[in-house]
């Protein structure tokens, strides 16, 4: 059983404010180092539970910010980490796994009381695929569903857990804090959060969850908080609806991500490489 874990920082126990990589103060350096340890320990707790339940391999995507947030000195040595910048795809190698989940999840943009809630960027009001509003977890679940892979496990803010439970009924969730506002939460201490994460992860591999899918072809809509788009100069592959909104038509979610985030067009997921090389 191969497991693919996405990670983020905003849903980790104890984190309540945006990471500021431009702040060179000693206080900010100490805060960032501490948060990287907290994330690594939550990842390790999840991995320990997954291995105890029979996982043979756990691939961890260091998905926050610049892709170097997990403290590798603190993480379970049995996992492998995908990190760094310039990746060929957001969730590279997901298609090689049997189930997926996330550690450190935040709720989607606009979630009432969601601590550090956003969708990809603080500038985004919301993403919709076929009129279904999706945050980052929903997009991960949709990409996984493209390959028939279920989304079975999530940890993070209480509101993020409710979000993924609605999309993927039966998914095992572990709330390590409950957002009170954008910049506040009621949180578990890291040690207790890790205990709960390990227990939840051990249950997750037995969860009965259907892969999350939406009808193809797909219509994607992005709404920004501030005006950004000029109908006479639309972004590639997009139609400008108004100054705040664009739409993109796509064959499937992989095609959508290549168009939206301009991943190298020569990159292909495994199934398409096999078709090409047959």
Task: Throw out a few tags for this protein.
Rossmann fold, seven-stranded mixed sheet, alpha/beta, 278 residues, 2 domains, globular, 12 strands
Can you walk me through this structure?
By secondary structure, the chain is an alpha/beta fold. The protein has 2 domains: 2-119 and 135-204, Dipeptide transport protein (Rossmann fold, 3-Layer(aba) Sandwich), CATH 3.40.50; 218-277, no CATH class. It contains 6 helices and 12 strands. A 7-stranded mixed β-sheet has the order 3-2-1-4-7-8-9, with helices on both faces. It has a 5-stranded antiparallel β-sheet with strand order 6-5-10-12-11, with helices on one face. Helix 1 packs parallel to helix 4. The longest helix is centred in the N-terminal third of the chain and has 27 residues, at 26-52. The two termini are 27 Å apart. The mean pLDDT is 95.
SSE inventory with pairings:
Blueprint (H helix, E strand, L loop, with lengths): L1 E6 L18 H27 L4 E5 L18 E3 L16 E7 L18 E6 L2 E2 L2 H11 L4 E7 H10 L4 E10 L2 E4 L2 H15 L13 E7 L13 E5 L2 E6 L2 H9 L8 H8 L1
Parallel strand pairs: 1-2, 1-4, 2-3, 4-7, 7-8
Antiparallel strand pairs: 5-6, 5-10, 8-9, 10-12, 11-12
Helix pairs in contact: 1-4
